[in-house]
Amino acid sequence: MVFSFTVIHRALHPGFDEDVPFVCAVVEMDEGVRMVARIVDEVADRTATLADAAVEVVYVHVADDVVLPAFRLSTAEARGNERR
Asked: Which of 13, 40, 67, 75 has the fewest CB atoms found within 10 Å of its own CB?
C-alpha cells in the first residue's frame, strides 16, 4: 500500500532527464515494513488516486548486474482507476 509519495520533477543527474516526472513513494508492505521506491506506472499526472493504493513489486534492470525493486499499481487497483 502506498503510505506516502512525492512527484520528482527535477533530475538530479543529466542521465535521468528523460525519467522526470516520476513518483517516489514510501510503500508499506503487508508485514508492516516500509520501503522507499519508485512507482513505475505512468501515474505522475494522476497522483490523486495514489493515497492508500495497492501496489505490487516489479524488478527494474538498471545495468547488466544491477536490479532494483520498484512498484506498480496492483492489477485490481489499476482496473479500478480506469473506471474513475
From this structure: 13
* Burial 34-70, CB ≥16 within 10 A → b, else e: eeebbbebebbeebeebeebebeeeeeeeeeeeeeeb
Residue 27 buriedness (CB in 10 A; 0-12 / 13-18 / 19+): buried
Q: pLDDT over 70 for what percent of the chain? A: 86
Q: Which amino acid is it at 81?
A: N
Q: Can you tell me the distance from the alpha carbon of 59 to that of 38, in angstroms, rounded to the nearest whole number?
A: 11
Q: pTM (2 decimals)?
A: 0.76
As a whole number of angstroms, the distance between CA 78 and CA 75 comes to: 5
